[in-house]
Amino acid sequence: MGLGEYERKRDFKKTAEPAGAGKARGRKARANRFVIQKHDATRLHYDFRLEMDGVLKSWAVPKGLPWAQAERHLAVEVEDHPIDYADFEGIIPEGQYGGGTVMVWDRGTYELTPPGDPVEAVRKGKLHVILHGKSQRRMGPHSHPSRRRQKPMALDEDSGRSQTHFKEAR
Predict the structure, then answer these.
(1) Residue 128: how many CB atoms within 10 A of its CB?
(2) Is the peptide bond before 82 cis (omega within 30 degrees of 0)?
(3) Structure confidence at residue 165 as a pLDDT band (50, 70, 90)
(4) Quick check: 67 and 169 in contact, CB under 8 A?
(5) What is the distance between the alpha carbons of residues 116 and 145, in angstroms, rounded to a whole number?
(6) Residues 34, 21: contact at Cβ < 8 Å?
(7) Mind listing the pLDDT tens digit for each residue in 63-108?
(8) SS3 call for 38
(9) Domain spans of the chain?
């Protein structure tokens, strides 16, 4: 997708969001990073971002990530974000795209399971990852201390529908 849409939606004279470098950075990073940001915009939601292909592939998850085995939550793919956005916390001014407070909820690394190319997995609509997060906070009402730092997650497209859901992978 690239950063063109991200840049078109923002006025960087008015927002402190990272502008990006105009081009996505090269793919080779030390580890695949993820970030989950709590975003209190028009509606409170969570933004789930995975570093791949030189950008942060991003999904808005209106009800947070699922933490129960049978739970599924809608995930809406949004524009790619620059890698620097993984560290962004702050207030996007009212009247700007995504206006509201953004805070980092969790961050860490992820591994694709089974191993492979994450870009191809997203293209196929079958992305399964294990999150190695740093936060002790939970997004759901259930707390499972034994699974706080490693959380298997799956991004699956429903057959015949144009919806994507996150679910706990088991």
Answers:
(1) 18
(2) no
(3) low
(4) no
(5) 29
(6) no
(7) 877 777 677 888 888 999 999 999 999 999 999 999 999 999 999 9
(8) strand
(9) 31-168
